[in-house]
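Exercise 7b. Backbone tokens:
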């Protein structure tokens, strides 16, 4: 259902299924035959609660999130299967409980992958349940019984922060993936500014600076190819990246919309977020806004797949609105893109600096990093 787009007035079996889910979630108390204004409000409320783009339209991303929300822990047996992997709120609840009990299943992403299966086996062994990697009735019963008696394990947020600190402040030997977007919606605006070219140029400028500081840098695409989001996620995960930056330029029907925004993984529904991702998003936002006159649209937690399924802390940066004449004019200037690249490399270094070594936003320069020798 990659091309799914259900909006006000849409009807059919899929719409009926969506309405049934919204009713079960308590967001709707009626059974209309089509998407009405009331249903649109319910969809928007769901999107808001899930960290999705709030537009009242059921596209493939929202539909998949609705499907995942149907499952509660115990509704079905959970196990590792061939792609597509099992997804759902029940998987997220299982992962969350494992983390509370001290098992390391990584990020709470609601996807039953090999790491989650490994935790199931580890738990089954410790609980005296048949070890088969499947979370069925016996395992769920043991999990419920032991959840409140076993706790104290290092939470995932502490592991994520510890992993960052253990790598030290030096950028040398770190692996960073740069993801210049440029998909089907990256057309040319009235000023001749194209998203795919702008973000690719920013990525290249940042790549050069990072390479000079000893970083291993990978770009998810070249000049002419357009890998899918799934392919970019797989690529990032296979590199074993320490960090991933995804660059975009936004669009809006009203040309008055303008400014820069950053996004990190966070789920209000599951009560989790990427601590490192949130901190880095904040650093990027502050550095760009301190060095440019782009409007500060702040940082936001989202559950988009690029943020959720990429293992490394990932931040999406919307560098401005190409539909706004001012933003488009700025992004079209090479010197402005240079300032953006410098802002980003400083934000990356500040992420790895200890607080006592940090500096005031907008004051560090790349030359300062070289003088300090922290690129070695």
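Sequence design result:
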């Amino acid at each position: 259902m990659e091309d799914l787009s259900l909006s006000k007035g849409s009807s059919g079996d899929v719409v009926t299924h969506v309405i049934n889910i919204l009713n079960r979630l308590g967001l709707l108390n009626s059974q209309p035959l089509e998407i009405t204004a009331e249903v649109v409000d319910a969809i928007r409320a769901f999107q808001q609660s899930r960290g999705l783009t709030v537009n009242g339209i059921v596209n493939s991303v929202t539909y998949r999130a609705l499907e995942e929300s149907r499952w509660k822990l115990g509704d079905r047996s959970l196990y590792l299967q061939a792609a597509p992997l099992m997804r759902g709120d029940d998987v997220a609840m299982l992962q969350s409980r494992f983390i509370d009990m001290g098992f390391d299943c990584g990020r709470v992403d609601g996807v039953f992958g090999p790491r989650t299966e490994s935790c199931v086996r580890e738990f089954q062994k410790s609980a005296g349940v048949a070890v088969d990697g499947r979370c069925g009735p016996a395992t769920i019963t043991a999990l419920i019984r032991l959840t409140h008696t076993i706790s104290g394990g290092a939470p995932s947020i502490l592991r994520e922060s510890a992993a960052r600190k253990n790598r030290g402040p030096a950028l040398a030997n770190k692996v960073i993936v740069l993801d210049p977007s440029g998909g089907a919606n990256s057309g040319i605006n009235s000023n001749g500014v194209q998203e795919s070219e702008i973000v690719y140029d920013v990525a290249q400028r940042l790549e050069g600076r990072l390479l000079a500081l000893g970083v291993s840098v990978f770009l998810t695409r070249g000049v002419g190819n357009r890998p899918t989001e799934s392919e970019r996620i797989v690529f990032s995960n296979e590199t074993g990246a320490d960090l991933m930056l995804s660059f975009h330029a936004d669009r809006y029907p009203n040309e008055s919309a303008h400014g820069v925004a950053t996004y990190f993984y966070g789920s209000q529904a599951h009560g989790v977020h990427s601590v490192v991702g949130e901190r880095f998003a904040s650093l990027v936002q502050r550095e760009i806004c301190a060095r440019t006159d782009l409007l500060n649209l702040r940082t936001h937690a989202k559950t988009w797949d690029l943020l959720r399924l990429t293992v490394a802390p990932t931040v999406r940066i919307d560098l401005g609105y190409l539909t706004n004449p001012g933003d488009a004019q700025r992004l079209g200037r090479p010197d402005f893109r240079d300032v953006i690249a410098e802002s980003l490399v400083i934000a990356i270094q500040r992420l790895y600096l200890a607080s006592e070594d940090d500096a005031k936003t907008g004051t560090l320069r790349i030359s300062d990093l070289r003088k300090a020798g922290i690129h070695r």
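Instructor comment: Residues 150-154, 371-376 have pLDDT under 50 and may be disordered. Residues 334-352 form the longest helix (19 residues).
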